[in-house]
Predict the structure.
Amino acid sequence: MHDHSVQITEAQVTTLASQWPSLQILHLACEPVKLTTPSTLTLRALLPFARHCPDLRELGLFVDASSVANLPDSFSSEPSLASRTRSGGEAGDIVQFKTLSKLCMGVSDIRDEGTVALFLSHVCSLGVEIEWGASWEDDIEKWSSETAAADDLIKEISERCTKWEAVGQMLPPLMRLRMKERERCGALEGRIEELKIQNRILIEKGMMGVCEASASVVLGR
């Protein structure tokens, strides 16, 4: 149990993830007792781990998911990211975790569970388990009759957990939708490539026909 969250910037998270490519399990105090200080991290902090840590199986972060204004521009401006969401990519891409099986959000702040679930559906694969809540919550309930502060803390945690539970319920159908989108886009990209090849063959045949016709004219003379 930690009183405070880890004060780390997203730039430092990117450095950490890039230097630990073999990382498999990481929990960064995602259940702090003191909730008065918001996290310095947002949902964007997930992206460096998805990009640089292909073996990561468990990740626990305390983030400020109450604001969705700073999510990647491509996410907020496009309804479908099937063609941009991949298992690897450039620094600006939204990438998907390769082996993640458990994402622990602890008591992270959250307001718009729908938008959060939509974002996570782009970075998580079907089957990823979302965990939330505090392992020490039972202990603090013992103090609730003694201090109003404890009552307020329990209420705040309960509200956050309710929203994270909703995210967990929305994720599976959204992930299935993403899979179908990727399949459709993959089929479409394959068809486009076929058409390009066919078009190239037709152009080459046309050019050969022109050359043969020109040669016939020359010989006829």
